[in-house]
Amino acid sequence: MMKPYHTSVLLHESVDALQVKPGGTYVDATFGGGGHSREILKRLGPDGRLLAFDQDEEAAQNAPDDVRFTFIGANFSALKRFLRLYGIEHVDGIVADLGVSGRQLEAAERGFSYRLEGPLDMRMNRNSTLTAAHILNEYGAEQLQQMWSRYGEVRNARTLAQAVVNARSRQPLTTTTQLREIALQCKTGDEHKYLAQVFQAVRIEVNGEMQALEQLLVQSAEVLRQGGRLAVITFHSLEDRLVKNYMKHASFSDEPEKDVFGRWQPLFRVITRKPITAGEKERRENPRSHSAKLRVAERI
Predict the structure, then answer these.
(1) d(CA 283, CA 196)
(2) Is residue 5 part of a domain?
């Protein structure tokens, strides 16, 4: 039996949070295997509309044959531009399931997993020119250190960066196995956690994930109509912090950005004071759900 492209995490919780209106217009910002999209379509009436974004060309093969559905092969950072292209000014809800799909992780040739040998690629958009190999072979030690410190929260980022520089001076780094071996020589604490942090940071840098998420959040506030819902599922603390702060403060810092008179204008009403996490059954059946956090807010 063929494995599914991707098992959606917190599927019903996130779609329930959108409070789908039969005639509403919705966006699935991370289409992937289409789990969230199919659940939204079940709840839409004949006049409803759903637009789904995914920069991975492989995701297009999962698009449902439904006149209410539009697949957009682009990063969700282009949300506003494509909505305008389709004549849409406002939407009723947006859902985003961030991170890497199960299909991407299990495809050795994509280079996302430290468990499988493959090329140092890690591109979600395979038309992009920046690869993990370029970063690991061309970035200076200080750039590498900043990347692992910022995006992987690797405690000994400086040691790891220097180890990479030393290794590539002997031969170019081309495979995930090479990166794994270098990382294992530098690891502190739990091996699997350390490797996950190392690979996560490179993936985030390759795909510009934090910058794209910031753009999605800002544009979501601009396109959601009053009362529209934003539901975002994150998988690590960096993403979760951005989402939490923007929903709460309309800024990416821990405090709202106030004007000279000390005033600020909230954009959302936070629905989830604490993030929703997967239940015991889902955690048992889908390991990816262990670190998932769902935050929901309503446009004011």
Answers:
(1) 18
(2) no
Domain presence at residue 1:
no
Q: How many domains does the chain have?
A: 2
* Start-to-end C-alpha separation, the chain: 47
Whether 95 and 137 share a structural domain: no
Residues 222 and 172 in one domain: no
Judge whether 2 lies within some domain: no
Sheet containing 69-72: give its strands across: 69-72, 49-53, 25-28, 91-97, 224-234, 293-299, 268-270
| Banded model confidence at residue 6, pLDDT cuts 50, 70, 90 | low
In a 3-state reduction of DSSP, which class is residue 266?
Answer: coil
Q: How far apart are CA 5 and CA 134, in angstroms?
A: 28
From CA 127, how far away is CA 283, in angstroms rounded?
34
pLDDT number for residue 3: 43
Whether the model pTM is above 0.90: yes
- Residue 109 DSSP label: G
- Interacting residues of 256 by C-beta distance below 8 A, sequence separation 6+: 249, 250, 264, 266
Picking from 175, 207, 239, the residue at the C-terminal end of a domain is 207
Q: Which CATH number does the domain housing residue 267 bear? A: 3.40.50.150
Give the whole-angstrom CA distance, residue 168 versus residue 136.
Answer: 8
Report, in angstroms and rounded to the nearest whole number, the Rg of the chain calculated over CA atoms.
20
Q: To the nearest 10°, report the CA torsion of 292, 266, 210, 91.
A: 80
Provide the percentage of residues in the chain whose pLDDT is more than 70: 98
Residues of the domain holding 21: 11-102+209-299
**How many Cα neighbours within 13 Å face the side chain of 194?**
17
User: pLDDT tens digits, residue range 197-241?
Assistant: 999 999 999 999 999 999 999 999 999 999 999 999 999 999 999
